[in-house]
Design goal:
Length: 145
């Protein structure tokens, strides 16, 4: 097993900003980070002792100048990269203040159909499931039938 696989997972808070029409915000990872140039939902590592949703709010202020007002805990995924073992906490966020700005020099884009590539490997399997939430919210919430 690789060192990353053996390591304790690093918690990452990830926010899916979702407009009323279902469009979601993706950002491109800046130079100097692992997987630079790959697209991701904005977020970052949770600091020691920090609440996960507060970490998400902090990252959105730092990276995009956006104040996230609320978020729905959506899913949690673990993934082992060669650089790290991560545990990703995804939140769907429909309420925020401010327009995203590129505060760290990164590109970002609102997406209906996903036209940017490549996406981070751990995020790709979630997109099909996310489409059910984006385009049929009432059905997605009613999984009892
Ligand atoms: N933000 C985000 N990170 C993701 C996604 N999918 C995925 O595998 N990751 C991984 C990539 C990284 O290994 C990790 C996020 O860590 P990061 O290095 O970007 O976090 P950070 O901004 O706090 O970085 P730093 O302060 O250490 O530079 O989570 C995603 O959709 N969004």
């Amino acid at each position: 097993m690789s060192d990353a696989a053996m390591a304790k997972p690093v918690d990452v808070a990830v926010g899916i900003l979702m407009r009323a029409n279902g469009d979601v915000l993706l950002g491109q990872r800046p130079e100097g980070k692992p997987y630079a140039g790959y697209w991701e939902f904005p977020g970052g590592k949770v600091e020691q002792g920090e609440d996960i949703f507060h970490a998400l709010q902090r990252e959105f202020v730092e990276e995009l100048g956006v104040r996230v007002l609320s978020g729905e805990a959506w899913c949690c995924v673990e993934h082992v990269y060669e650089h790290a073992h991560v545990r990703l906490y995804f939140y769907i966020c429909r309420e925020w203040e401010g327009e995203p700005q590129s505060l760290e020099g990164q590109a970002f884009a609102w997406q209906g159909a996903y036209s940017v590539a490549p996406l981070l490997p751990a995020t790709i399997p979630l997109l099909e499931w996310l489409d059910r939430v984006r385009f049929a919210p009432s059905q997605a919430a009613n999984f009892a039938g």
